[in-house]
Design brief:
Blueprint (H helix, E strand, L loop, with lengths): L1 H18 L11 E4 L2 E5 L4 E12 L2 E13 L2 E15 L3 E11 L4 E12 L2 E11 L5 E4 L13 E3 L9
Antiparallel strand pairs: 1-3, 2-3, 3-4, 4-5, 5-6, 6-7, 7-8, 8-9, 8-10
């Protein structure tokens, strides 16, 4: 029974991350989680979702290979997604990276690796990105020695909106 409760709390942890996401969300959205395997370890307060993990809520959907959740005082503390992390939102666009971490107490989301943010036709890419949910401040940078970085610079393409008809 305790393992079932810990597994359910893994899902609740993702609801915290999704509910705190930058896109405005409607009230209490249902959270749907699919994975090939769920492992809960109550001794070290961790949980793992693995194999084609898909987490959906409201207009947001995250796909990744593996999700690790750690808890402190029965509350999610850190949520780590590894392997082909892609978050899609109808309102906010698409964010992707090789790995991602949501530090719950700090309300800080970090993407690492081949970081790409897309909204409509606008694209921003680098090797490291952060978004602070408390302050609304986002930052993307690129390290010259990082995989996927050819020159250590951030790349951005901004497309102007179509002209308005009179």
């Amino acid at each position: 029974m305790k393992k079932l409760l810990l597994a359910v709390s893994i899902f609740a942890a993702w609801s915290t991350a999704i509910a705190a996401a930058p896109a405005p969300l409607k009230g209490n959205c249902e959270i749907s989680v699919d994975a090939d395997k769920v492992t809960a370890n109550e001794k070290d307060n961790t949980g793992v979702l693995s194999g084609n993990v898909v987490v959906s809520s409201c207009d947001m959907k995250m796909r990744t290979d593996i999700v690790h959740v750690t808890y402190v005082a029965k509350q999610p503390d850190k949520i780590t997604a590894t392997g082909h992390v892609v978050v899609v939102s109808q309102k906010s666009g698409i964010a992707s990276g090789d790995s991602g971490v949501y530090d719950v107490p700090k309300k800080l989301i970090t993407l690492e690796g081949h970081v790409v943010l897309k909204h409509d036709k606008n694209v921003l890419s680098g090797t490291h990105g952060t978004y602070n949910l408390a302050t609304g401040i986002a930052q993307v940078d690129s390290k010259p020695s990082a995989p996927g970085s050819t020159d250590g610079r951030v790349h951005m393409v901004l497309t102007p909106p179509p002209p308005k008809d009179n």
